[in-house]
C-alpha cells in the first residue's frame, strides 16, 4: 500500500472487529441508569432497576424533587423554583453566588416578559443592583438585563436573547447541575459524552481508514463505506 493511501475495510471485516470487542453487560446497564437518573426519568429508572437489577445509586424520590424544580424554572416560575430549592437544601443558593444572581436575573426577566416595567425596575434596584455592587463580575450581565426596560418590546430588541425560552433552559440547567453536585452526583450524564467521543474517534479514523460508518446513531446501523478522498 502506497504511503498516505488509506486501507479499506469491508463491512464483514468491520463487524468481526466490533464483535471482538467485549463489553460487560453491567457496564452498559450502569451507563443507561446513569443517563436516566441524571436526566430525571424516574419511572423509567424504576422499571429499568426492576428489569435489570441495576441500582440507581441515589434516592429516586429526590429525583422527582429535582425535576419539579427544573420544570418550575423552565415554566418561568422562578420564585417557586427558589422556594423548592431552599426546602431541598438551602446551602445550594447560599454557597452559589453566581447561581443566585442568575436566578434573580431570571426573576426580573420574567417581570419584563409580563409587562410589569415598574415592578421590574424596583426589583432591579432592590435585588440585582446590590448583587452587582458586591460582585463586579456580574456587572455586565446586570447592565444588559436592566437595559431591557429601555425597549418598548424587549423581545424585538438587541437583547432579545434574554427573552428567549433558551435563557430559561440555561438557568434551569445551571440549577440542575448545582443540585446534582450537592447530592454527590455527576452533573452531566455519561452517555452524551461517550457519543461525542465516538464521533471524534470516527473523525480521527477517517484519516487512516475507509470503513463502514454508523448511518443511524439511534440504532447504530452501519451504512456504506465512506467515500475515498
From TrEMBL:
Pfam families: CTLH, LisH
Domain CTLH, chain residue ranges per copy: 62-119
Residue runs in coiled coils: none
Organism for this UniProt entry: Symbiochloris irregularis
PANTHER family in the cross-refs: RAN BINDING PROTEIN 9-RELATED
Identification of the protein by name: CTLH domain-containing protein
InterPro entries the UniProt entry points to: CRA_dom (IPR013144), CTLH/CRA (IPR024964), CTLH_C (IPR006595), LisH (IPR006594), Ubq-SigPath_Reg (IPR050618)
Signal peptide range in chain numbering: none
Amino acid at each position: 500500500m502506497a504511503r498516505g493511501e488509506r486501507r479499506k475495510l469491508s463491512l464483514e471485516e468491520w463487524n468481526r472487529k466490533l464483535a471482538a470487542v467485549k463489553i460487560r453487560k453491567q457496564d452498559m446497564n450502569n451507563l443507561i441508569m446513569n443517563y436516566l437518573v441524571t436526566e430525571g426519568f424516574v419511572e423509567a429508572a424504576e422499571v429499568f432497576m426492576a428489569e435489570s437489577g441495576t441500582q440507581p445509586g441515589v434516592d429516586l424520590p429526590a429525583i422527582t424533587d429535582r425535576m419539579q424544580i427544573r420544570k418550575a424554572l423552565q415554566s418561568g416560575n422562578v420564585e417557586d423554583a427558589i422556594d423548592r430549592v431552599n426546602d431541598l437544601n438551602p446551602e445550594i443558593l447560599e454557597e452559589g453566588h453566581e447561581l443566585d444572581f442568575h436566578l434573580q436575573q431570571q426573576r426580573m426577566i420574567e417581570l419584563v416578559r409580563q409587562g410589569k416595567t415598574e415592578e421590574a425596575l424596583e426589583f432591579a434596584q432592590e435585588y440585582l443592583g446590590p448583587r452587582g455592587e458586591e460582585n463586579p463580575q456580574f456587572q455586565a450581565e446586570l447592565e444588559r438585563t436592566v437595559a431591557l426596560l429601555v425597549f418598548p418590546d424587549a423581545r424585538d430588541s438587541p437583547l432579545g436573547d434574554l427573552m428567549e425560552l433558551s435563557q430559561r433552559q440555561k438557568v434551569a440547567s445551571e440549577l440542575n447541575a448545582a443540585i446534582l453536585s450537592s447530592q454527590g452526583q455527576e452533573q452531566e450524564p455519561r452517555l452524551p459524552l461517550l457519543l461525542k467521543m465516538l464521533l471524534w474517534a470516527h473523525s480521527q479514523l477517517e484519516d487512516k481508514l475507509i470503513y463502514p460508518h454508523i448511518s443511524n446513531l439511534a440504532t447504530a446501523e452501519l451504512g456504506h463505506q465512506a467515500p475515498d478522498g
